[in-house]
Amino acid sequence: MPLNMPDPPGRIRDKARATLGAVAGDLGVGLRGLRAARGEDLELSTPHQVFVMDPDDAEAGGGLARARPVGWRFLVESGGEVLASAESADQLEGPGSPSFAEGQAVTSTATAVRAAQALPQVAKGGFELRLLRIPAMYLTALWLHASHADLLIPLDPSPIGDEGKVVPPTVFFRKLADLARDMQPLRPQPPPGSDQS
What is the value of pTM for the model shown? Predict the structure, then answer.
């Protein structure tokens, strides 16, 4: 069974497609790949839901159950080549305009998705593609979710290493806890005598 790409709400896909058509070929857009493309040549592919976690959740060993869904992301392709990503926040009042990005984050996502599709576990197990972010730690990972297992693939650059490699959640969160301890001196500390409650 191939890697499962979940179907986002239609309003999110429609808004992303409409906005993509408007920015394609627009010389004012800062993204080289989209600026050079024609709208009719672009397609949204590889939909995946975006989840975030706070460092405190990661440090507490709360695991993936503490990740919160915040939106949807697509890869933008032309002729089979990934040019950019389009990401929309899932809001109660409806989707906002998607933000587009290109560069290393997009390239590493496309590479990791191809690697994930070749994994024997994925071929057998019906994993769903997700994206996990821990912004305060500058960490992004593909999250392959199935009812029986979860796998994580840190994207390049990763502060815990293992870029592009499958990491079990227990190892992933242990490395995050180590990273959080290393970062502790960098966090702002309350002044002496202040109320920390």
Answer: 0.85
